[in-house]
Write the structure tokens for this entry.
Amino acid sequence: MPNTYSQIYLQLVFATKGRETRIGATIKDDVEKYICGIFRNKGQKVLAIYANPDHIHILFSYKNLQITVPELVKIIKTESTNFINEKNLICGKFSWQEGYGIFSYSRSQKDSVCNYILNQAQHHQRRNFREEYFGFPEQVRY
């Protein structure tokens, strides 16, 4: 087979340092767009993204196998931190917490996970980040 084909759907979740509420409504769109640009520049396709005040969810199609997931996450977190700080989007210094969660899904689950991510505002009225994170992947029912 002369070409490489992959169909890998991953959900990336990581929090702000100390889980502080740092991503307000005024910067949410800018942060999401910037992070989508980083993914695109690294040969990945974002299917859904939602920046909560204290954490972010990103579902992406992992296509460029020339970069490992840990390398990609490091780039995403470093470049988005630099963007927020250099543009002075918040008062004080911004940073992401160390670590992350990465969860894989099948093609048949893709739409459900997209809906879950895009409806984070409603979801977090019922369940906080800690409950959500430690319930992965059980909380996303298909």
